[in-house]
Amino acid sequence: MSFLKRFRKEFEEPPLALTFDDISLMPSDISYSSSRRDEDISLKTQISKNITLNIPLMGSYMPTVSGEKMGITLPQLGGMAWMPRSPEQLRQVQGVKRHENKIIEEPYKISHTATVGDVQQQLKVLGVGALLVMEGSNLVGLVSTRDVDLREDYNLPVTEVMTSRDMLVTLDPRGLSEDEITRKAVELFIEHRLEKIPLVSDDYVSGLVSKKDVKKMQNKLAVRDKDGHLIVGASVGLSRKENNDLDLDALVEQTAKLLDVGADIIGLAIANAYLNDAIIAVEALRKTFPDMDLAAGSVTEYEGTKRLFDAGADTVLLGIGPGSICETRIVAGVGVPQFTAIRLAQKAAREEGKFLIADGGISEPHHLNKALFAGASGVILGNVLAGTDDSPGEKERAGNTWVKIHRGLASDTEKKNFDAMNNRSREVDPNNLYEYVYKHVEAEGVESGFTAYRGDTVNAVRRIIGGLRSCMTYMGVKDIPSLWKRCDEGKYVRVTPAGSRESNPHDLLSFHT
């Protein structure tokens, strides 16, 4: 091929990549859904080998998005949250796993030598309403908030305010299944107007049944593990030694700790999963924990996705640069618009029988719909959830509106936080030009941004899910895999700037008096 022909091919016909706002979906020729409330429409989606969500939404592993509160709320709504890397990560995972239980297998306890002040402090720290009072391994009573509230004598012995063992209503679980234990506990709750029933065989305490937990179990939308606990994910990163070599021992150790406290899926979530170290890390995690659910990313096309699957990932996180607080495409100039990225990667997922999660680029309901349409099994939400009540941090006043802080995971602040967690320092000598300029690592995340306060997380999720049900009705499908088929059939069109303008509210007048 002549130089001129090569020149024309490269500059006149570069590969085309589309994002969600570049396309619009075409309705089905005929739809048999009765309405958007059609009971046959299923939003269930499998995101890994052992986890199926009831709605295809996940909270991001960003510190300004997901914490313990978000980790509890999202699985109650049918989704899931990823606990971010932080000194609080293990405690956050534990908090989510203990929030709902068929049976509290390891109820919190306190010694019979404790005081009212000790009890008040423990109840506050643990965030629970009652403690079993133990003398050695023997149950001697139960103390609750109502026993110690408003008491000013903090030195009063717990034995003087607790409900003693001979006054407790207990249940012997021997020979009973979990369902039978729950049924008998409900009968006792009603008969004795109780809130908690210890499971006791002789004087050995094997668990606790809480009326509050029994009521929570009636929520059929919630996603739980086989023991009735809410599911939760946890993110890990590439651990490095002081000389910047990969530290597989530290990565494996942290993963083991997360699994021990109940994490249902581990996500190796790094900005650049094309690094060979990322492949080595996935292989090491899979070898060490052959049965765990493992996600890895981020990548943005077929080859990178297949490489992570081959290394042992069940699920690939897809997206480089689409997030509202991500600057990778500005700083590095690297990334593929998200709709095309999913279309490129979904081929590898189908070949392997594995799963894709779209990470970033979702700010409106139609973005979610198009990510699923393109081939994703679920999406990770950042900005949308960062502004809700359940995200970490307090809302702030900015002019005439309320906002919440939303900071990029690759911002300087977060990089310093990660370094501090790993006892590392990236300080360079500003007087050494080689160090200061050549070895500088530029942040690829917004340092300090704000997102609009959106209020209740339930309402934010409700709006997005309502849009998805509407989309599926137009597309004539009743489950997410059928939505993928509509994309394979080419049921979408490109949108021009004029078409984009037409898609949004326009030509309206606003009068102020």
What does this structure look like?
The mean pLDDT is 88. Strand 7 and strand 8 form a beta hairpin. The strands form six sheets. The chain has an eight-stranded parallel β-barrel with strand order 4-5-12-13-14-15-16-17, surrounded by seven helices. A four-stranded mixed beta sheet has the order 6-7-8-9. A three-stranded antiparallel beta sheet has the order 18-19-20. Helix 8 (248-260) crosses helix 9 (276-288) and helix 10 packs parallel to helix 12 (338-352). It is an alpha/beta fold and 513 residues long. It has helices at residues 3-12, 68-77, 89-99, 116-126, 145-148, 178-192, 211-216, 248-260, 276-288, 302-311, 328-331, 338-352, 365-374, 383-386, 412-421, 433-438, 457-475, 480-488, 497-503; strands at residues 23-25, 45-46, 52-53, 57-59, 80-83, 109-111, 130-135, 138-144, 163-164, 196-201, 204-210, 233-236, 265-269, 293-299, 315-318, 355-359, 378-381, 396-398, 401-406, 449-452, 492-494. 36% of the residues lie in helices and 18% in strands. It has 19 helices and 21 strands. It is globular, with a radius of gyration of 26 Å.
